[in-house]
Design brief:
Spore Coat Polysaccharide Biosynthesis Protein SpsA, Chain A, 16% strand, globular
């Protein structure tokens, strides 16, 4: 029998949460699936726990990330994709829960030409209580709406046709912050509006707890900022290519704020990189902004200190970004 869906779960030292995740998979109303658990080097009881599930149901597999691949969830997701045998791909997190019809209700929407079906879910606390609906607004401009944060598509939201992904780069293993957002923006860019279905139905539980990335401290982290900077610069380029002033303004403003944060936190090389990129990407479309960016940016770098007045002036600069 051909396996229809490959469920790929990266994991690291979360055996308690992962056990609940696997139990929810076994309860699925849709049965044609394989589940590949990719261990990123766990030192807890993950291997033994998953082995018990593998004995119980051969559709569940346990694999260790090869030593020659970079550590991290991105490498594990990509490795799982390489191993997958299904015609559809579902990346899933090791602390989330599938509701009974999570797989079936989206598979029902895969007709010819549909490459992705995304659903919504509930945010829950550590004990899977206090459900809060994650809104999923209708969209025909999936890249723009996702980029502008008007569309809540999370890792467990999206079920992809595998053939759609095969000629595309997987998750970027060089970044450790915002990797899902980077992946989705890259995948959604120029995606045919007839190729996806947004199913406004909550089909998973998205667990929030102290060890979740979403709950971690927002202190300035240079590596995280550099990862996000790279993502925002790439999407600023895409926005210019689309000749979309709203998107250009959105990413431009984020990068201006990152520039001044970099100056104030002594993250000078990243600030210089942002300034150089902004001058090159948006400068040609607004000469007055280019002069202001150049003058304010160089002065801030020289003084090793940002100015709220200069930052505000750049963020609030009224530019139409005229594209020829």
């Amino acid at each position: 029998m051909t396996t229809s869906i490959s469920i790929i779960i990266p994991t690291f030292n979360r055996s308690v949460w992962l056990q609940e995740t696997l139990e929810s998979i076994l309860k699925q109303s849709y049965s044609s699936w394989e589940c590949l658990v990719i261990d990123d080097g766990s030192t807890d009881s993950t291997a033994l726990m998953v082995a018990s599930f593998c004995q119980k149901d051969p559709r569940i597999q346990y694999h260790k990330r090869p030593d020659d691949l970079a550590k991290g969830a991105n490498s594990c997701r990509n490795y799982g994709f390489q191993l997958s045998k299904g015609n559809y791909i579902q990346w899933f997190d090791d602390d989330d829960i599938m509701l009974k019809n999570y797989l079936k209700n989206r598979m029902d929407h895969f007709t010819n030409g549909i490459e992705m079906v995304a659903c919504t879910g509930y945010k829950v606390d550590e004990s899977l209580q206090k459900r809060t609906l994650i809104p999923l607004n209708p969209s025909t401009h999936i890249y723009k709406d996702y980029a502008l944060r008007n569309l809540n598509i999370l890792t467990p939201s999206a079920l992809f046709r595998k053939s759609f992904l095969e000629d595309k780069q997987g998750f970027n293993s060089d970044i450790s912050r915002g990797q899902e957002a980077e992946f989705f923006m890259r995948i959604f860019y120029k995606m045919n509006p007839q190729a996806f279905v947004l199913l406004d139905e909550p089909l998973f539980l998205y667990r929030q707890h102290d060890s979740s990335k979403s709950a971690k401290s927002k202190n300035y982290n240079p590596k995280f900022i550099e990862d996000q900077t790279w993502t925002y610069i790439e999407n600023l380029k895409r926005s210019v290519a689309l000749k979309d002033p709203e998107l250009v303004q959105f990413f431009y403003k984020i990068l201006v704020r990152f520039f001044f944060s970099g100056v104030n936190y002594g993250h000078k090389h990243n600030a210089k990189h942002i300034l150089k990129s902004l001058l090159k990407i948006v400068g040609p479309f607004d000469k007055s902004l280019k002069r202001k960016l150049n003058n304010y940016g160089r002065l801030s770098l020289l003084l090793n200190k940002g100015s709220y007045k200069m930052e505000s002036s750049l963020v609030n600069h009224k530019s139409t970004f005229t594209f020829e």
